[in-house]
Amino acid sequence: MKKPTPKYPIDATVQGRLNALEMLIDTEYKGKPAKFEEATTVKMAQVNQWFTGYRALRDKALRRLEEKANKPFGYFDSQAQAMQSTDDDVQIKQYDAGGSMGGGRLTLEDQPGLIKSWNVDREWVRMNVKHHTGVDNLCVVTGFGDSMMGMYNPGDPLLVDKGVTTCEFDGVYFFRVGHEGFIKRLQRIPGQGVLVISENPKYRDWTIQPDMDFQVFAKVLKVWQSQSL
Q1: What angle is formed at CA 121 by the lines to CA 223 and CA 16, rounded to 5 degrees?
Q2: What does the pLDDT read at residue 86?
């Protein structure tokens, strides 16, 4: 979100709460203050007063904000403390697809090795991953197969959000049908099922029927397409 410039002194405790509020609006409301205001009924005029320092986000207002945002008691203070942690590193681990299947084996076609983890700082996450369900839900998946070439290549890194386990909106998802894993673009077709779309035109679209053994592991947030030089 684009926040107003502070005009008055803001103490460290309040600033931490404001940082947590900014992250909440960015991650859960896609950085759109109007969506936040509509969902919580908290007026952005009041929020802007907090950010400028004209009014302080003290305990009474904070409890009311937590209630309106449907967050537990102490949510913003705990988030602020986590954001101010001296350990600024974030480890983004490899997604454990086998664990999500209860220990079953998942088949991934033509996967050329694995990226097992990334180490980034919180600033990288804040600047590069605007919308996610939480830092702890971010995972890395190594691209496999050639059906999505044009978006990424086999072996390229994909950043996914394992907090998204349903296909409510069109997008690119990591999922399985039976024991076979896929990364494809999914599009819901009312009355027909879920259309599976490849980026590579050599592959035909197909439909996931309601009676198929279908599970969404995660939503793909970002991909990187490598190029040999």
Answers
A1: 120
A2: 45
Distance CA 174, CA 110 (A): 15
Question: What integer pLDDT is reported at residue 105 of this predicted model?
Answer: 63
Model confidence over 147-200: pLDDT tens digits? Answer: 999 999 989 999 999 999 999 889 999 999 998 999 999 999 888 889 999 999
CA-to-CA dists, residue 216 to 42, 133, 180, 181, 229, angstroms: 34, 15, 12, 10, 35
CA atoms within 13 A on the CB side of 42: 21
The structure tokens listed for 152 are 């990424």
- Contact call for residues 225 and 151 (beta carbons, < 8 A): yes
The H or E element containing residue 181 is strand 180-189
Residues 120 and 92 sit within 8 Å (Cβ to Cβ): yes
Q: Which amino acid is at 1?
A: M
CB-neighbour burial class of residue 164 (10 A; exposed 0-12, middle 13-18, buried 19+): buried
